Amino acid sequence: MHSRNRCLLLAAFILAPCLGLAIETRVHAASKEKIPESDPFGRLTVDQVERRLGRPNVYVFDGNTSETYAENHLPDAVRINHKDITASVLPQDKDATLIFYCMNEL
Prior knowledge:
Elements: H1 3-19, E1 23-24, H2 46-52, E2 58-62, H3 66-71, E3 78-79, E4 97-101
Parallel strand pairs: 2-3, 2-4
Antiparallel strand pairs: 1-4
C-alpha cells in the first residue's frame, strides 16, 4: 500500500480505538479473525483494514468532512454524512463486510 494511504490508515486508527469509530459490521465465517460477542461491531487494527481493502464484497465508508475526504481518503471509500445517511448508500448484499471510519472532527 502506498505510504500516504498507510499514514491515513494509521492516523485514523490511532484515534479510532479511543473513540470507538473504526468498526466492521461482521467477519465472514471463513475468516480466522473472530469478533467477540462483547464487541459485536469489531474494532479493527490498521493491518486488519489494510488486508481487507480491495477484497470483493468489502465496502469502506468515510465519515469525515467533505474537506477532509477531498484532501485524502482510503481507496474506494465512499463519503457518508452522518446526518443524512440512508440505507440507499449501503450494499444490498446483507453478507457484505462494511468498514466505517472517521477522525471525529465534528
